[in-house]
């Protein structure tokens, strides 16, 4: 995948549907959501929008879309073989959704901020190589490089259906099964899209 194309909701609804039907790459939706870390309103808005888009995709009414939402689990369509990869991520003011018609997907988004304990967090969860890379970066670039590494790890975990866990060589080999691409959906925000084709 050469470029991440972001479809802004609701402006790009038709283009997102066309890309979803075409199905040759994961489809990425971006939502403006409340500027808060409280995510209930963002979750509800994203689910409502997904029901509208998926109604067009499935050819049914939005209220008939069998979108299953269970706390702590990825959203899924209760339709055998239909759209296996749905992943959602929120941060203050932004929500992203990845939809993959041919396999799993993972998305993670993070606002840039200075993290005084970045070295400990990177060592525990990102591994020694990532920790060295972040440490070697210029101070003004460090937050962005950390965010890219963190969202890349989180997106790939989601893509594989794994919970957050500390870094091990075995985990790193598992994560390498996913393609991943980092990008900036908005100023001061870093995200990573991960995908895995299963058919």
TrEMBL record:
Keyword Transferase appears in the UniProt entry: yes
Domain of life: Bacteria
Annotated coiled-coil segments of the chain: none
GO molecular function ontology, one term from the record: holo-[acyl-carrier-protein] synthase activity
Pfam families documented for this protein: ACPS
Keyword Transferase: yes
Ranges for domain 4'-phosphopantetheinyl transferase: 106-169
Signal peptide: none
Key words of the record: Transferase
Protein name as it appears in the record: 4'-phosphopantetheinyl transferase superfamily protein
Source organism (scientific name): Noviherbaspirillum pedocola
Lineage: Bacteria, Pseudomonadati, Pseudomonadota, Betaproteobacteria, Burkholderiales
């Amino acid at each position: 995948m050469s470029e991440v194309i972001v479809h802004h909701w609701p402006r790009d609804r038709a283009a997102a549907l066309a890309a979803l039907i075409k199905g040759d790459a994961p489809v990425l939706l971006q939502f403006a959501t409340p500027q808060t870390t409280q995510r209930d309103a963002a979750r509800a808005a994203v689910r409502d929008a997904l029901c509208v888009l998926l109604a067009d995709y499935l050819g049914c009414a939005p209220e008939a879309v069998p979108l299953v939402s269970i706390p702590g689990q990825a959203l899924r369509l209760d339709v055998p073989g239909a759209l296996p990869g749905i992943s959602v991520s929120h941060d203050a003011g932004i929500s992203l959704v990845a939809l993959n018609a041919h396999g799993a997907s993972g998305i993670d988004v993070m606002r840039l901020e200075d993290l005084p304990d970045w070295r400990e967090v990177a060592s525990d969860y990102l591994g020694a190589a990532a920790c060295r890379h972040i440490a070697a970066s210029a101070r003004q670039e460090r937050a962005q490089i950390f965010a890219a590494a963190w969202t890349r790890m989180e997106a790939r975990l989601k893509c594989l259906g794994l919970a957050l866990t500390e870094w091990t060589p075995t985990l790193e080999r598992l994560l390498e099964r996913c393609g991943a691409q980092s990008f900036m959906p908005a100023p001061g925000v870093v995200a990573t899209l991960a995908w895995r084709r299963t058919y």
